[in-house]
Amino acid sequence: MLPKLPDRNPFEPARIPLPREAVKEMVIPNVLDDDERIWVEHRDQVWTRPLCLNVSNGYWTELLRVRKSGVLHRHRHPNPVHGLVLKGRWHYLEHDWVAEEGSYVFEPPGETHTLTVPKGVDEMITFFHVTGCLYYIDPDGNPLGYDDVFTLIEDCRAYYTKVGLGADFVDQFIR
Ligand code: FE
């Protein structure tokens, strides 16, 4: 939508300050090929590269990277998920579509799924925006545990300590 009122100086930058309560912006260059240690290895050949860990709105953005074929943990989302496949492809056992390279995926609240990387995919990388939590369940919906932005931050602290970046390294991604 264009502004309803005329703008006499359309090419001048805004002079108003950032609101006092606003959090700091974040720009991370070269997210796909920066320091390998930033990729937190969750399990064998499965990594997450945190981008924005938002503790006041309860969401996070990340790059999920998988370098093996197989099934990842079954889970339910009480809140929406957005995904963009940057490399490779994957599908859910519960759906008949395939998220190919370049695909955007919206997962509605209430969605339960089991992510699977098919044979023949050497590497899968997907950007995810996840709100709320991953609620791990058995096939009948019985709870097995959860992850949320806070457990992810603790995982990052432990991993970054182990690889020598230090527990505080994750703080730059927290808003
Ligand atoms: Fe999911």
User: What's the total number of strands?
Assistant: 12
Helical coverage, percent range = under 10%
Give the overall average pLDDT: 96
Instruction: Output the strand order for the largest sheet.
Output: 1-2-3-10-5-8
Major beta-sheet overview: 6 strands, antiparallel
Q: Determine the strand fraction and express it as a percent band.
A: 35-45%
Class of secondary structure makeup: mainly beta
CATH class: Mainly Beta
End-to-end Cα distance: 29 Å
> What hetero molecules are bound to the protein chains?
fe (iii) ion
The DSSP helix count reads 1
Q: What order do the SSEs take from the amino end to the carboxyl end, as H and E? A: EEEEEEEEEEEEH
What's the CATH architecture name? Sandwich
Q: Which topology does CATH recognise? A: Jelly Rolls
**Molecular shape:** globular
Gyration radius, to the nearest Å? 19 Å
CATH level 4 superfamily: Jelly Rolls
Tally of structural domains: 1
Low-confidence segments, given as residue ranges, are none
